[in-house]
Design a protein that fits this description.
- The structure is a single chain.
- The strands form two sheets. A five-stranded antiparallel sheet has the order 3-2-1-5-4, with helices on one face.
- It is α+β, with helices and mostly antiparallel strands.
- The two termini are about 75 Å apart.
């Protein structure tokens, strides 16, 4: 049992300070004896029998330099002697304050639970954060899964002989709570309650920052999910329009072409050459309308993307593009629907925006890199800036990221990385 178990924490803290300063006095006396007295004894003093000023000045300078490191080290040793494996209340509070900058990096709250456990000798220390009016365990010491602890209400914290809890309030708003659970043989003391209250008062800003971080993360996740839903809805609408054009207007025009063919054969049988000529002209115009409808439908959502995959759909773009396009697809099988749609429309929309900016060429290189699909697009000859907003939104909604490297002469390299989901071949 440590000395702090036998004495009150206040007396133990006084004893720790006394040991620290006694050790400092011994060290300082030793430095003066080594630097001032030692040389005088060896040399028999100065010429006039006085020690002179040089040695005391040197000794004072040495003491000034080493005072703080030695004091810090002696305080740690005294705290270890007096408090055992615990840390002093002062150290708990100072570390809580020092941990504020770590919160921005996602750390700090676990250290707070460990400090509470070490500072009070508790078997378990829990740090709670507020969540929708309840307290959720965010960290625990000894380290364990805090999610296994059931959430409690703000008035549901236990406070008895071996358990103490304090709410953490900052500017009138409750951001969490602190709880310690001590062994039955070492119940909580007034010093434990005081330390817990002091740490709770000092932790208000810490838990507020953590709460803000969680809120920002949740809002960012909501924005990403909302963007993903919007893009999925837009692609579903594209698919529906392509189906409607294919099964509706396109089939009606094709049926009209068939009827014109029948009318042409009847006119040929009757020898009505003028009618044959007119019907043939109408049939040709009808075929052009069918081709135009087909092109519009494929531009909205290509059937090849669904039936044959990303490689076949991009090869069709390569054949029909208004500017020279080179597509290289390296060893890609069927991927997830979202990944294939993201990659296809990333290429197609970049091609369209680049064409409008006066681009002369586009090279597309798609390859798998572990769990990611890398889409590299090289655009040449742009005479104006290329609007990549919609492509950026689509890539980020799929959980990927995009970088743009603009070079001289209208050259641009766009590299996108998208998480890959491999699926079985679809009919």
């Amino acid at each position: 049992m440590s000395i702090a178990r036998a004495w009150s924490r206040q007396h133990a803290a006084r004893l720790s300070a006394s040991i620290t300063y006694a050790g400092l006095a011994v060290v300082i006396l030793g430095i003066y004896a080594l630097i001032v007295v030692g040389p005088l004894v060896l040399t028999g003093g100065s010429d006039d029998g006085n020690p002179g000023l040089a040695l005391p000045i040197v000794a004072s300078a040495v003491v000034a330099v080493v005072f703080e490191p030695i004091r810090s080290r002696l305080r740690q040793l005294a705290d270890r002697l007096v408090f055992g494996d615990r840390v002093s209340p002062y150290e708990v509070l100072s570390r809580v304050t020092a941990s504020y900058p770590d919160v921005a990096a996602g750390n700090g709250i676990g250290d707070l639970a460990q400090l509470l456990a070490r500072g009070t000798g508790a078997d378990r220390a829990i740090v709670w954060v507020t969540n929708s009016g309840t307290l959720r365990a965010a960290a625990m010491s000894p380290e364990a899964s805090a999610s296994a602890i059931e959430p409690v209400g703000l008035d549901g914290l236990v406070d008895d002989d071996v358990t103490a809890s304090r709410l953490v309030v900052h500017h009138g708003v409750t951001y969490g709570a602190l709880t310690i659970v001590k062994p039955g043989t070492d119940p909580t003391t007034p010093d434990d309650h005081q330390l817990l209250s002091d740490v709770a008062a000092a932790s208000g800003l810490l838990l507020r920052n953590i709460s803000l971080n969680h809120e920002l993360e949740q809002r960012a996740a909501d924005v990403r999910a909302s963007r993903r839903r919007l893009i999925a809805a837009r692609d579903a609408e594209r698919h529906r329009l392509e189906r409607d054009l294919h099964d509706g207007a396109q089939q009606q025009v094709v049926a009209l072409k068939v009827k014109l063919g029948i009318a042409r054969r009847i006119a040929q049988n009757e020898g009505a050459e003028e009618i044959v000529s007119r019907v043939t002209s109408l049939a040709d115009e009808t075929q052009r309308a069918v081709d135009a409808l087909r092109a519009v439908a494929h531009g909205i959502y290509p059937p090849l993307l669904e039936t044959e995959g990303l490689d076949a759909a991009l090869r069709a773009v390569e054949r029909t593009s208004p500017i020279p396009v080179t597509v290289s697809v390296q060893g890609l099988g069927r991927l997830g629907v979202e990944v294939e749609e993201t990659a296809y429309f990333c290429v197609v929309e970049t091609l369209e925006h680049a064409r409008m900016a006066g681009a002369s060429t586009l090279d597309a290189d798609l390859a798998a890199d572990g769990p990611h699909l890398i889409i590299s697009l090289s655009v040449g000859g742009c005479r104006a800036s290329v609007d990549l907003t919609s492509i950026t939104d689509r890539i980020e909604a799929a959980g990927g990221m995009m970088t743009v490297d603009e070079r001289s002469g209208g050259e641009m390299r766009i590299t996108s990385t998208v998480p890959v989901v491999v699926t079985a071949a679809r009919a």
